[in-house]
Structures are given as structure tokens and as C-alpha cells.
Write a structure and sequence with these properties.
Elements (H helix, E strand, L loop, with lengths): L3 E6 L2 E7 L5 E7 L3 H24 L9 H9 L14 H6 L17 H27 L1
Antiparallel strand pairs: 1-2, 2-3
Helix pairs in contact: 1-4
Length: 140
């Protein structure tokens, strides 16, 4: 590229120049540290979102003594977006319709609690995720 024109911002710069074949070319040069900051913002938003999903999912999780529902607080990795129910019977309770699922007054508890919660709360989850990302990016 011959002569270059720079459009700079705190996040980096866009470089405009001419290629040897006469065509205009653009490329982005990110500011040092922007990538890690940006990544951290999304990780923090992911963590907040996973915790919100776990909170909204709690009324759907089968509850007898509470061991299954409480296991997600220990086994989950919110920063990675992983909500894990770590009991030996969690899989069976999730996929087996005929398995004993004690009910509460809401009638939500039972198998496939993740899918049912997502279906019931889809709009809330989308709005929450957008707000969480916006909030984290404003902090940076």
C-alpha cells in the first residue's frame, strides 16, 4: 500500500490505502488490550446470563429433598455458560417422563426442565442477554 489514511478511536484504527493494483484496501488494527477487554466483557455477561437462567430454571427442577436442584450451584461453570446438575440420577430425571417428580404449587417441576424453562422464558432471556452485554461493554 502506498499512502495510508488512518481513522482512529480508542478501540483501534481503520487504515485505508491503495494496493499496488490500484484498488482501495481497508484493514483494522485493534488497539493493544482491546481484545482481552472485549473478551472479558462477554465472559462477564455470559456468567450473569447463566446465573439468570439457573435462577429461572429452579422452579422447573424436580425437588424431593433439593439435592438435584442444589447440585447445580456446586457443579456449574457460569463463566463458560455451563449449568450442570451433578447427581447420579440427574440424567434419568431429566429424560424419564414416568419418573417420580414431586410437584409444588406451580406444577412446573418435571422432566426436560431446561427446554420447558427456555420455552416459557425465551423473551426474558433474550432481553436479559442484551442488557447484560450492554452493561458489561459500558463498564470498559
Amino acid at each position: 500500500m502506498s499512502e495510508k489514511i488512518y481513522f482512529e478511536s480508542p478501540k483501534g484504527k481503520i487504515v485505508k490505502g491503495m494496493r499496488s493494483d490500484g484498488k482501495v484496501a481497508y484493514h483494522i488494527e485493534w488497539a493493544a488490550g482491546f481484545g482481552p477487554t472485549f473478551t472479558q466483557a462477554f465472559e462477564d455477561a455470559q456468567s450473569a446470563f447463566a446465573q439468570e437462567v439457573a435462577r429461572k430454571m429452579e422452579p422447573y427442577v424436580p425437588w424431593d429433598f433439593g439435592t438435584l436442584a442444589q447440585s447445580q450451584h456446586i457443579a456449574s461453570e457460569y463463566k463458560k455458560g455451563l449449568i450442570v446438575y451433578a447427581t447420579p440420577y440427574a440424567r434419568r430425571q431429566y429424560y424419564t417422563l414416568g419418573y417420580h417428580h414431586p410437584q409444588d404449587g406451580l406444577g412446573l417441576r418435571g422432566p426436560k426442565w431446561g427446554q420447558r424453562c427456555a420455552a416459557d422464558n425465551r423473551v426474558h432471556f433474550v432481553q436479559f442477554a442484551r442488557a447484560a452485554v450492554r452493561e458489561q461493554l459500558k463498564k470498559r
